Amino acid sequence: MTPIRFGIIGGSGLYKMEGLEDMREIAVDTPYGAPSDAIATGTLDGVPVAFLARHGRSHSTLPGDIPFRANIWALKSLGVDYLVSVSAVGSLKEALAPRHMALPDQFIDLTRHRAGTFFGDGAVAHVSLAHPVCAALSAALAQAFDDCALPDAVLHRGGTYVCIEGPQFSTYAESQLYRSWDASVIGMTNMPEARLAREAEIAYATLALVTDYDCWHEGHDAVTADIAIGNLMHNAANAQRVLRACIARLAAAPPASKAHSALQQALVTQPAAMPEATRARLAPLLKKYL
Ligand SMILES: CSC[C@H]1O[C@H](OP(=O)(O)O)[C@H](O)[C@@H]1O
Ligand SMILES: Nc1ncnc2[nH]cnc12
């Protein structure tokens, strides 16, 4: 099968990709079970793309129950090496208002109960997460945003995304704590997604859609799911346009990404020394190192 290099994970409010032609749904079986949903493959303006709804198309999976390893493994096995994650986020800064967009470039991972690595079972690797977002992919998203010239749309470049376990939103004290860390946005899903993408040598970047001011802002009600989804619906069409423009840019000139060689200096156990079953499980990740 021809590799599908460009992947999109849609979060809250983004359950399908508009404009996907010759669409086929693929139920990928992985060593980590089934992904969140069937993966929709097709072409966007002639470019092969794979789309996956992170919580399932009917939004029935909690953030902590998302099969992150199955999702990333499945996309990797299709050939994805550039992955754009779309996520609803709360704002931790006055300047990032609801309905703005942001391109976070750092994460603080406060999740507690999620499987966060493909390695283990006789295979040791330590990838670098110093720069968890692919700068080139994020730049392509920023350029795509400019290409679209969306009236009234605002994009913030950079910033730190705090990933909480959820599913409850934060307490006021927690929200103030994250603000004191100078974090920009808060969500429940980008970790361990970003760390697994790095282990799979997939360039990863998040297009964050600001839906609320969490619960710290005196002039705004504390976030509820209804508030978040309501604001997101206003932004979903814009997000789809930015994604489409981004894919066109990437296809025209796929940028170099350090993520594509993340395992080169990370593998401690050589594949030949790994148990056969582990090597088989990691095959899509290790292919070029075997
Ligand atoms: C419905 S608001 C809370 C929900 O939205 C975000 O999900 P995603 O990143 O998939 O858009 C947030 O992390 C929560 O899961
Ligand atoms: N305030 C918030 N906290 C966590 N996840 C969110 N997703 C959207 N808004 C959020």
Secondary structure: elements and pairs:
Layout: E1 6-10, E2 21-26, E3 39-44, E4 47-53, H1 68-78, E5 82-91, E6 101-103, E7 106-109, H2 135-148, E8 155-157, E9 160-163, H3 172-180, E10 185-187, H4 190-199, E11 203-212, H5 225-252, H6 276-281, H7 283-286
Parallel strand pairs: 1-4, 1-5, 5-11, 6-8, 7-9, 9-10
Antiparallel strand pairs: 2-3, 3-4, 5-10, 6-11
Helix pairs in contact: 2-5
The structure holds the ligand CSC[C@H]1O[C@H](OP(=O)(O)O)[C@H](O)[C@@H]1O and adenine.
Please explain how this structure is put together.
- By secondary structure, the chain is of the alpha/beta class.
- It has seven helices and eleven strands.
- The chain has helices at 68-78, 135-148, 172-180, 190-199, 225-252, 276-281, 283-286; strands at residues 6-10, 21-26, 39-44, 47-53, 82-91, 101-103, 106-109, 155-157, 160-163, 185-187, 203-212.
- Strands 1, 2, 3, 4, 5, 6, 7, 8, 9, 10 and 11 form an eleven-stranded mixed sheet that branches.
- Helix 2 crosses helix 5.
- The radius of gyration is 18 Å and the shape is globular.
- 47% of the residues are buried.
- The structure holds the ligand CSC[C@H]1O[C@H](OP(=O)(O)O)[C@H](O)[C@@H]1O and adenine.
- Adenine binds at residues 88-90, 164, 169, 186-188, 211-212, 214, 223, 228.
- The site of adenine has 13 residues, from strand 5, strand 10 and strand 11.
- The record marks 170, 225 as: Important for substrate specificity.
Bound molecules: the ligand CSC[C@H]1O[C@H](OP(=O)(O)O)[C@H](O)[C@@H]1O, adenine
Helix content: 25-40%
Cα Rg: 18 Å
Task: Tell me the structural class.
Answer: alpha/beta
Q: Termini distance?
A: 20 Å
Order of helices and strands: EEEEHEEEHEEHEHEHHH
Largest sheet: 11 strands, mixed
Number of strands: 11
- DSSP summary: helix tally: 7
| Overall outline | globular
**Which stretches are poorly predicted, pLDDT < 50 over at least 5 residues?**
none
Strand content: 15-25%
Q: Name the average pLDDT.
A: 97
